[in-house]
Amino acid sequence: MKPPVAMDSAGGNSGKLFDEMPPRSSDRGCPRSPSPAAMEHGFDRHCVVLGGMPKKRSRLELDAGVSLWAGLQPDILGIVLHFLPCLADRARMRSVCRHWRASANGHVLPPPLPLLVLPGFKFSSLSDKGDLMPVRCVPVPKEVAADDLRCVGSFDGWLVGVTPNKDRSDEYNRDADGDCFLVNVFSRKVIRLPQLCHMRYNFPAYSSKTLRIINGSGEVYFRVNDIYTMSLCNVALSASPDSRGKYIVAASSDHKCASKLALWQPGMISWHICAGVDIDGPRDLTFYLGKLYVLQRYKIRLFAFEVGEDNGGLMVSRVKRCLSALPLHHPYQEGGAISCNMVVWRGELLLIIRHYSDNYRDREVLKVEVFALDVNTNPYGLTEIHSLNGDCIFVGLGGCKSFPAGLHHGVEGDHIYFVPDDWKPYDTFVYCMRDGKMRSFAVKLLASEFDVDQLSRDFPVWLLPTE
Q1: N or C of the chain: less Cβ packing under 10 Å?
Q2: Global pTM?
């Protein structure tokens, strides 16, 4: 009986992620690689003598072979683990025997390389060569299992998932989202959030207010316990649900061209809805220094929301426009299309801008720029940077993440990995901060797995597990 796998996670049971992954159809029927103990004794798990005819081995002989490897010192195992940056490789090592699993759990390791969650709840790990490893399917917890499950955000080992609205009778709400939840892909813990299609008024608890945008000419409207219908595009969390303190979930919705920003925290029975012409359109969201930042991706307009608490839960007390244009005399100030994202990197808030050619039908990425934002000026200052000090950044619709690639031997840093966040095949590439060059990234793999309807909004999401 194969011992259970224990992988790298604070919960100590993240090995289930890869241990329970059924292989792809192309992998079925292929024999599994023999264990080190089996290699030592010239047989594999199927009792086939390497280079000879099949020969049966007893369980006693198998256990005796494994015990030879069990004698390795924990310090040696720890050194080996430091040379295994991929989560799946660490799991394979820990699954050799109980001694290896117990010894490996006692070491403090750098976080494993990021995972990419593809449509259909499929996972692929970034390799130390900067490419994606073969895709594996992961069983979804039964309480949230659905054929149309899609991921819209992540934080540490948690994913934000949504499923379609179950009520198909109303034509307006038919293509809206229904259930929304947080799921830890390692511990399988599920946290349910309020429904995304809420069609019943709660008059005694209803409230609304309007805030003028500082440094702007518009207003933002807030409604509590109102009716709403949403289809989520992307979600950001202020902290991990594993943390002892409270965390905030911010979600961007665009249902029937009605753009909304929704806020929720534990204890609330419904979403707080924010709307306004100035914050409409595709948005990127991130929390930084206690504020929620909302970026209009195609206009370089950045807003800071100051979020507090009142008797009804969350309360937005102030909205300020922090940025509305690139620096003066910037060569890409006018003309061409742009796409913007934000990421928190080493205590700084960065703005990442992709510049595209004017030809819509044959559009290509012309340039990538990265700016550090100075949040102490009004409006915010921009300083272009050309190095990430050996780190990497991962950009996707479910949020942007920074990763300390320099902690892993052989993993190249100062790269930005882009995966599709819209139906644009040219947005799958790797950008090198050092020389400004771009190269393709996992094009064949993403093309073979990215076979979903263009109306589904089901895009890849980066997942960065913690040790």
Answers
A1: N
A2: 0.82
C-alpha of 295 from chain center: 18
Cα 437 from Cα 276, distance rounded (Å): 39
Computed over every residue of the chain, the mean pLDDT equals 79
**pLDDT tens string 344-399:** 999 999 999 998 887 767 778 889 999 999 999 999 999 999 999 999 999 988 88
205 pLDDT band, cuts 50/70/90, is: low
326, 352 contact by CB (below 8 A): no
Instruction: Determine the Cα–Cα distance for residues 120 and 158; give it in Å rounded to an integer.
Output: 16
Domain boundaries, the chain: 16-104, 114-138+326-467, 140-324
State how far the alpha carbon of 364 is from the alpha carbons of 368, 426, 430, 454, in Å.
12, 6, 14, 20
pLDDT at 6: 36
Widest CA span in the chain = 81
Q: Which residue has the higher pLDDT, 202 or 340?
A: 340
Distance CA 30, CA 427 (A): 34
